[in-house]
Amino acid sequence: xxxxxxxxxxxxxxxxxxxxxxxxxxxxxxxxxxxxxxxxxxxxxxxxxxxxxxxxxxxxxxxxxxxxxxxxxxxxxxxxxxxxxxxxxxxxxxxxxxxxxxxxxxxxxxxxxxx
Length: 115
Fold this sequence. Notes:
Elements: E1 10-13, E2 17-22, E3 30-40, E4 45-48, E5 52-66, E6 71-76, E7 80-83, E8 89-102, E9 110-113
């Protein structure tokens, strides 16, 4: 078992997004809570080259744009989104989400893609 107190979570923020990463030594899964306000990323798309990302929308609403499919999907509180490994996406909206990733998300495998 791994137990991570909220006080151990590490806050981060950027242009239109913020979050709390819960530190873990488990390489198979990790967890964060994210808040998006506006478009993220501001330009282009982002992709996780090693992990799947699941988002449970705790509050708010928005859209996720998928580059390869050229589609935009609307979501709201209570919905779940699963982003596959290597799927290029961008968010737009005002929402907060609980996000486990498997295998564990790392900044090295997270990339930004120009349009």
